[in-house]
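Sequence only, no structure available. Ideas?
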Amino acid sequence: MEFHSLFSSFQSVTETFTLFDVLASVGLSFLLSAVIAWVYRATYRGLSYSQNYVHTLIMMSMIVAVIMLVIGSNIARAFSLVGALSIIRFRNAIKDTRDVGFIFFAMAIGMACGTGFFQLAIVSTVAISAILFGMSHMNLFARDAREQILKLRLPEGSEYETALLRLFEQYLDGYRLISMKVGRSGGSTKFTYLIQLRPDVDRHVFLKGLQEIHAGNITLMSEETTVEG
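Reply:
I predicted one. Tokens follow.
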């Protein structure tokens, strides 16, 4: 009698979804999150691509689908899961805010699959993926690629700074001082500029001009490299 009661209780809990619901939700969330992962890899332009992060996107989408199946329309289960998940603490910092967007993308698709909105999940994945891929392919909203970070060290003396500014006027369309740091010995000053080379200027010629005014420790890099580093 007790075994029969336990079996009946288990059966009543699982009546909210069938085996087909589980396979359909998890399977579709896997396929759609794989599309999301492919779009992420195809549009990624940084220097610290992580395969583990891509795998996490797929895993997260499937897990969210299962969570939505478990919750169903039961408010008590929803509050219980919120309490259980609130004890989780994440210590890994996300370097790129774009990665956060893909996390929400994968979670949203997992939620749609878990609640049975399969058509919404498919259409949303195709539409958002196409938009993201198109934005990356057309390089929309990108800043001028000629903008770079220049770091150099100059000896003390106003004549060196005057020569530097004269060189800037000759080779650059624009420049902005970001930081200036005086060395401990007081013999030199470290400058950091945001510069924009003219289209017809060879960067090697520009660097040679910097060397001629006795600039030391010259570093020229893109802003993207600076952020990733």
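The chain has two domains: 2-137, 147-228.
Hope that gets you unstuck.
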